[in-house]
Amino acid sequence: MVTRRNVLLAGGIGLLIAHPLSRGQPAATIRRVGMLSFSSEATFAHLRAALKEGMHDLGWLEGKNVEYRIVYANGDVDRLDALADELIGQKAEVIVVSSQQTAGAAQRSTKTIPIVLAGVSNAVGAGFVAGLAKPGGNITGFISQQEELLGKLIGILHEVTPGARRVAILLNESNPSHSVFCASAQSACAALDLVALRVVASAPVQFGAAVEQIVRQQSKAVAVTSDGMYFAERTKLQEQLQATRLPVAYLLRDHVVAGGLLSYGADLVANYRNAGKYVDKILKGANPADLPVEQTTKFELIINLKTAKAQGLTIPQTMLLRADEVIQ
Predict the structure, then answer these.
(1) Averaged pLDDT for residues 37-49
(2) DSSP H helical segments within 24-99, as ranges?
(3) Strand order in the sheet with 299-304
(4) Distance CA 256, CA 251 (A)
(5) Phi and psi, residue 35, nearest 5°
(6) Residues 6 or more apart from 48 whose CB is under 8 A from it?
(7) Does the pTM exceed 0.90?
C-alpha cells in the first residue's frame, strides 16, 4: 500500500540523488601558457599584460580557463636554458618568446611543445623556422625584420645628425644574429658615406668599456642593435651611453622612454597582444608547423625631445610631424 509518508520519502530520496547531477557541470580545463622573459618582472610587466589582454579578447580568462607561467632571466643569458626547462617542467603547453636568445633557449629545450615568437628577428636565418609560409616545426608567430629596420634607423639618425660621419654600432656577440645586424649597419652606412664603427657589449659589465671605445674611436652618433639583454638592461645601458653626450638611436620605444634620443621599429606591445592569436589557435588544436609566420606591419618612430634639447640638437619639424610619439 502506498502511503503519503512513502511518497514523501521516495521524493526526498529522488531529490538527494538528482541534486548533485543537476549542478554537476564538468570543471573547465585550465590551459597553461608559458612566457620566457630575458627581462625582470618589472621591466616585462607591460608585455606580460599585452599578451594577457590579447588572450582575454579571445575568451581566455585567467584563473578560469588559462593560467600563465612566467620565468625571468633578469638579463642573464646563462639562465635562459634552465628557465626554459623549468617551464617545460611546469607543463606549459605553449611558450611565448620575443628575442633571439629566449627563442634559442626554448628551441634547445623542446622540439615538441609549441613556441610562439612575439617579434623575434631573422627567424629563418637563425634556424627557428624553415620558412615563413611553412614553418615546419614547433615554432611560429611574428617576426619584426629588425635586421632590415636597422638600415632605416641609421638613415633617420643621419637626418637628425647630418654632420655625424662616424657612427658606432653597438652589438651583442651572444645574439645569434649579431653578424646579420653588423652587415646591415655596414651597408646602410656605406650608402650614406658614413663610417660604421663596430662596438661590442655582450654583458652589462661590458657597457662601460663599450662607452670608452665609442669615445676613443671619436664616434659622433650611436646606433644600438635590437637585443634581449639590451632591452632587459635598457635603463643601465642608456645611463652609460648618456655620459658620451652623443645622439643614440634604438630599434625599440622602451629605450627612448629610458632616455634615448629616438627609435624606429616594431611595436613590441602590439606583437605580444597579437601573439595571443597564435596561442589561441594552438590551444584549440592547430599545429604550429602549419601556421604561417607573420611579419610585423606596424612600425613606430619615437623621438625624445627632452633628450634632444639636453644635447643641443634641433629635430627637423618634418621629422617631428612624421613621429608617432614625441616625448617632451
Answers:
(1) 95
(2) 45-57, 80-89
(3) 195-200, 166-171, 221-224, 248-250, 262-266, 299-304, 325-327
(4) 9
(5) -130, 125
(6) 35, 37, 68, 70, 272
(7) no
